[in-house]
Amino acid sequence: MIRFNLATTLSGLLFLMGASLSTATPSQDEAKQTIKAFANDLKTTLVTTMKSQGPVAAINVCNVSAPAIAQQHSNGAYVISRTALKIRNPQNQASSWQKEILKEFEQRLAEGEKIDSLDKVEERDDGWYYIKAIGTGKPCLTCHGNELNPAVKTKLTELYPNDQATGFKQGDLRGAFIVKYQH
Ligand code: HEC
Question: What start and end residues bound the annotated signal peptide (predicted)?
Answer without folding.
Answer: 1-24
